[in-house]
Design goal:
Chains A, B: InterPro entries: HTH_LacI, LacI/GalR-like_sensor, Lambda_DNA-bd_dom_sf, Peripla_BP_I. Chains A, B: It comes from Rhodococcus tibetensis. Chains A, B: This is LacI family transcriptional regulator. Chains A, B: Keywords: DNA-binding, Transcription, Transcription regulation. 2 copies of one chain form a homodimer. Chain A has 344 residues and is an alpha/beta fold. The first copy, chain A, is built from 13 helices and 12 strands. In chain A, the strands form 2 sheets. In chain A, strands 2-1-3-4-5-11 form a 6-stranded parallel β-sheet. In chain A, strands 7-6-8-9-10-12 form a 6-stranded mixed β-sheet, sandwiched between helices. In chain A, strand 3, helix 7 and strand 4 form a beta-alpha-beta unit. The radius of gyration of chain A is 24 Å and the shape is elongated. Helices cover 42% and strands 16% of the residues of chain A. Chains A and B meet through helix 5, strand 2, helix 6 and helix 12 of A and helix 5, strand 2, helix 6 and helix 12 of B. Strand 2 of chain A pairs antiparallel with strand 2 of chain B, so a sheet runs across the interface.
Amino acid sequence: MIPKQQVNMADVARRTGVSIATVSRALRGERGVSDKTRLRIRAAADELAYVVSPEASSLSGGSTGRVAVVVPRINAWYYSSVLAGIENELRAGGLDTLLYCLEVSSQREAFFEQLPLRRKVDAVIVVAFPLTRQERIRLEEIGVSVVIISAHAGHFPSVNIDDQRAAEQAVGHLTRIGHTKIGMIRAVDPEGLAYESDLRRLAGYRAQLAKAGLAEEFVVAPPWGTEGGEHGMELLLSGPDVPTAVFCFSDEVAVGALRTLRRAGIPVPQSMSVIGIDDHPVAELADLTTVRQPVKEKGTAAGRAVIELLGGHPPAERAAVLPTHLVVRGSTAPPTSGTVHQRT
Amino acid sequence: MIPKQQVNMADVARRTGVSIATVSRALRGERGVSDKTRLRIRAAADELAYVVSPEASSLSGGSTGRVAVVVPRINAWYYSSVLAGIENELRAGGLDTLLYCLEVSSQREAFFEQLPLRRKVDAVIVVAFPLTRQERIRLEEIGVSVVIISAHAGHFPSVNIDDQRAAEQAVGHLTRIGHTKIGMIRAVDPEGLAYESDLRRLAGYRAQLAKAGLAEEFVVAPPWGTEGGEHGMELLLSGPDVPTAVFCFSDEVAVGALRTLRRAGIPVPQSMSVIGIDDHPVAELADLTTVRQPVKEKGTAAGRAVIELLGGHPPAERAAVLPTHLVVRGSTAPPTSGTVHQRT
């Protein structure tokens, strides 16, 4: 039943005529191995389809076989999907996943000051939250591999979507079907941290308005989540001039916006079009038009990058960008004459 | 910024006049310490509000400071919520969370045969999946603390809701408002494993029907998930006699059932009442009546039980049962005369 590991470090050592310790050092990218020897070992390992296993690799000392995943939340669709992709990929590579959830800034500060990761892990995957310069330096200091998901930090390899392009896809759909008054509900960290995805999606919204020759912006910035979406739509509806379509930071925000519209008796899409980003499972249920992003695949790609780094390879792409695409459902339609229609 | 650890094992040792090693052994519940000494050490630790920290505890050898969490899925609301509760509680206790997702039986078999947990963790939390006798014995053999969530296994401490009672609460609501033809959509593991929650909820459905003097059962058993719910409702609608209300294993199943009803043009709740279990975030969106279970709290309670076990205490409750309660929304109503009403 159990697929036995067919190849081990001793096989690679035998094939290249060096010691097991040298193979281990070479495959983990450590110093003390010439480039020529490293290349020979790498080639032999590739030929034998040898995957670094933590048990084997720790024979020579350094490796723990563990990778830390640092997230700001666990029980939200986005984060649990990323985590599922990471865990699956790491486990396939023989690595264990250590999970750290840092929800508020005080936890984050304590974490980066104490750095409990020291000597505990071979690599760290940081999901989505913006690192301060100080935090980035602390991570560099502990000398393990680092991969960033849904953000960028220094020279660390990263996995992202193009957030600006995703916003342009969403707003472009609205301009194409004829909307000229388009709002945006952003999603802001309650503690005021600037998330890259929010800023880049705002830039995409603006770029697409400019491209369509629309000068008028309707932007609100409530705290993220469904309640933020509810509140954001209330703000947009209470303005002197109300848009006919709203681009929401995410599907969860859009679901909140839809709730407010339902309560206000404003029919969707007849009197208001709504679009999100994600293709969260709730989007299908709510018949929500959205821009799909491959979330679990982000985790898989980051896991693969870690395995490559620990195997002594640079990752195939230093800054991987996964594709997004428009999914048209029932929450968007061309604008009508402006009358509020009765719900059907 | 960082709350410094105020108290350490040396303080406890000083206070009780024993060695640090003895404190460590006593607090981790190891042999070689008399009951009298253990009680004195425990009392001193409690007085000093000392929490076992893995670094301190590993000074004496045995402890790793890590707890393995074994789940059958990560990116589903239920599991990510349990996981959030566990991680939060363990981190507060100075313990790290190692995550293992075993989705299919081949992974499960390999995992329990190879037992990668050996020497890696101090405790294991198993979430929801049914352990075979063999797997239970393997877990006992590695000699670490084990806590079970949403199931029972041997003498391991467990955290559950009363699944039968939750089902009785759901079906009781339907009988109270006058339904006499009540169906159930179960949720079955695609590989045929018998999940305790499914069996106990089925028992609750039957018990409540019996209590109401209803002899007629309408039970379908599709694979779990939203698609299973869609299919389950199709099966119920295609029978010779159709119920007026349906109890679904979970809210995700109920959402699938609602989709089928919408496609079939059957108005909810006028022609069909639907109730789930969970109070999944989607339940509010779908205006679904449900029985709420405290999911994150299950994780918190299991994390606390692990910390108690590792501190040498038996957990406060060996088989903790958390409460559930009915949340009435718009998807249930008294049965009508049987006419299919138009949707409003």
